[in-house]
Design goal:
The chain contains 5 helices and 11 strands, in the order ααββββααββαβββββ. The protein is of the alpha+beta class and 207 residues long. The strands form 3 sheets. The protein has a 6-stranded mixed beta sheet with strand order 1-5-6-9-10-11, with helices on both faces.
């Protein structure tokens, strides 16, 4: 599916979202509620993308979790990170996830429970479950006014191509969304990622 068609359906989903879910944006707090907002937006996207699954916080790839130890960067992914100035952000993110994993393992020893820290858990994906092909869109949405570096790293990786275990993982498009509230109009400011790089940095989706 080409980007123009994807963008048209995204605009419709955000418009429905704004009409149906205004109670998620009433202060306080003076910002959208991230998880409920993503869940409701995904529900409308599912109607508009009937040939795909639309999932929230989908942390698995085929039968495997997308965890840190299984991730291998391709040369194109490394180059894209460097070109986008995200190499340090990736290293910091990896270090933070490793610390969380070590803490979870220590907690597991204490509680004798199996714990798992997942590395790539998107807010919303539009994809075909259990397939390596036809991964259409990876979307990260935050109630922020500035771009989140960790989300930028994820979007660069999943659109340039990485390996999870011995399987390739790649999405056609990545969308980084900041949900912003204004007195006259709410809007999602967005950046489009393709091939590990930002290709459109000034997208707007009013809602």
């Amino acid at each position: 599916m080409d980007w123009n068609e994807v963008e048209k359906r995204l605009k419709m989903a955000f418009q429905i979202f704004g009409l149906q879910d205004k109670d998620l944006f009433i202060a306080p707090p003076a910002k959208p509620l991230e998880r409920p907002a993503a869940t409701r937006l995904a529900m409308y996207l599912q109607v508009l993308f009937p040939d795909y699954y639309v999932d929230c916080e989908y942390g698995r790839y085929e039968s495997n979790p997308k965890n840190l130890d299984m991730l291998t960067l391709s040369d194109s992914a490394k180059t894209a990170l460097r070109d986008e100035g995200l190499t340090d952000a990736f290293d910091n993110w990896k270090k933070k996830e490793r610390t969380k994993l070590e803490q979870a393992e220590e907690k597991q020893k204490e509680q004798k429970k199996q714990k798992e820290v997942k590395l790539i858990v998107p807010d919303i994906v539009i994809h075909r479950r259990g397939q390596q092909e036809n991964n259409l869109l990876y979307l990260e949405a935050k109630p922020l006014s500035e771009w989140d570096d960790e989300d930028s790293v994820k979007l660069s990786l999943v659109t340039s191509g990485v390996k999870v275990g011995d399987k390739d993982l790649k999405y056609d498009y990545g969308l980084q969304v900041n949900l912003q509230l204004h007195r006259t109009m709410n809007q999602a400011e967005a950046r489009l990622w393709v091939g590990g790089r930002t290709t459109k940095a000034d997208l707007r989706f009013p809602f």
